Amino acid sequence: LRECVKSKQVDQVKEEDGHLIFPAGARFRRDMATAFTVGKKKNMSLLLLFYTAKFQKRITYIKKCKEAKIVFLPQPEVDQVMNYLQGVTDSYTGSDGAASTSAAAGGGSTAQHEAGPIPGHRGEAGQVSAEKDDSRDAAALKKDVKRQFREIAMHDRNSLLSIPGNDFSFALKYYKDARAKVEAASRRHSRERPTPAIMAKVLGDESTRVRDDRAPIIVVPNAGTALITLYNAKEFLQDGQFQSSQAKRQSGAAKPQNMSVSRKQPQATYTVIDNPTKLSSKDWERVVAVFALGKDWQFKNWQWPTPVELFAHVLGIFIKWEDEAAPTTVTKWNVKILNLSRNRAHKNHTASMSFWQMLDEFIKVNRPEFSRD
């Protein structure tokens, strides 16, 4: 096994009928004991040693060991084993601090390997019989498996949060402060708004201004090839229906300027535009979502002129037909991909609902001042 690791042939070792078959043709029982020891002089099985050498990704290593019902090694011992197998060191020291094997003991002779399984190794005390090793390993394995399932693999955020003694009260304070800001903003929004006549006089030409100076803004592409434009954005976002922009134009429909989209649950109004270059810096603070066309030039002269900057501040959405692949450039952006169906209208309604769910989650985490919970 050491020679396979050093020559980078460990992937050529095959598992078959409870045996490991090496590239040179040598064949060993995978549950046989090796000269490597762990814990209180417990000899590692050949399978454990093989998995330690083959699966360098920790999560994969642990998963494979659990599937084989063997106890995986702690990372420090994995490092010691690999240093020996890779030839970095000429000996391996077990977890009890005693020398477990050396280049001479670990290498052995080819003749001895081909003759049959290697008995367990106990330092200077000599070798023990393979049968006794197997009996001892079976009992040890049963005990170690029970211990293994009581262990907690600390490799995700949930398990880290469960460590006793950790104090996350500061997070509650941040939440309460953010919630207070949301409630204050909600009270401001609930005040009486100016009449439509006054708003029209103040705003003037709607083609160059945002209709509502407090509503969150959604930006759609200003391109005839886009699936969602100002021609069909309201029907898709508000009613969950999709009709292509080309069909709307051919029917004689005029292109809207800035428009408002209303939601009932939660009750909210959004402004939809397709020319954000006219937005002020204050208006950009209200942009919550952008429908991407898939081309970098779409963002020219914007507040954030690159996809990396833009989609770090707003929710990015890319819409495509379900039978087409997303452009390679889009897959590298921080955007959510929604699929439309050419023939099944209910799927387009589902896509509309998915957009609002994504936006609600984004606003809750990143723009709580627009939250309507």
Overview of the molecule:
Helix content is 40%, strand content 16%. Strand 1 and strand 2 form a beta hairpin. It has a six-stranded mixed β-sheet, covered by helices on one side. It has a three-stranded antiparallel β-sheet with strand order 1-2-3, with no helix packed on it. The protein is an alpha/beta fold. Helix 11 crosses helix 16.
Distance between the termini: 60 Å
Largest sheet: spatial strand order: 9-10-8-11-12-13
Could you give the count of β-strands? 13
Secondary structure tally, helices: 16
What value does the average pLDDT take?
A: 78
Q: Which blocks of ≥5 consecutive residues have pLDDT under 50? A: 95-99, 102-131, 203-211
SS class: alpha/beta
Largest sheet: 6 strands, mixed
H/E element order: HEEEEEHHHEEHHHHHHEHHEEHEHEHEH
Report the principal-axis shape: elongated
Radius of gyration (Å): 32 Å
**Strand-residue proportion:** 15-25%
> Helical residue percent?
25-40%
Q: What is the topology?
A:
Elements (H helix, E strand, L loop, with lengths): L1 H5 L7 E3 L2 E3 L5 E3 L3 E6 L3 E4 H9 L3 H10 L7 H11 L5 E3 L5 E4 H5 L2 H6 L14 H21 L6 H5 L7 H21 L6 H8 L13 E3 L13 H7 L5 H6 L8 E5 L4 E6 L7 H4 L2 E5 L15 H4 L4 E7 L6 H4 L3 E6 L4 H22 L7
Parallel strand pairs: 8-10, 8-11, 11-12, 12-13
Antiparallel strand pairs: 1-2, 2-3, 4-5, 6-7, 9-10
